[in-house]
Amino acid sequence: MANKIDYSGMDEATLDQELGNLKREAFNLRFQAATSQLEKPSRVREVRRDIARIKTLQTARSRAAAK
Question: Cα(38)–Cα(15) distance, rounded to whole angstroms?
């Protein structure tokens, strides 16, 4: 994972936008996988993990703001 993006430096609006983009990409990748047109199968895993990273960061920030 050499090209891992650092999401911690992004503000909430940027994170929301990036999350939307990644969810859209995950949707498209699922369709490609179902029709056997997936060129890079490892990208599915990368996208899922990036989505999880963003959601984890958002949860941590909202909990910190609640305290």
Answer: 26
| Dihedral sign computed on CA atoms, order 11, 14, 17, 21 | negative
Q: What is the pLDDT of residues 28-38, one digit of tens each?
A: 999 999 999 99
CA angle (33, 1, 55) in 5-degree steps: 75
Distance separating alpha carbons of residues 27 and 65, to the nearest angstrom:
31
Distance from C-alpha of 57 to C-alpha of 51, rounded to nearest angstrom: 10
| pTM of the complete model | 0.90
The Cα–Cα gap between 36 and 29 comes to: 10
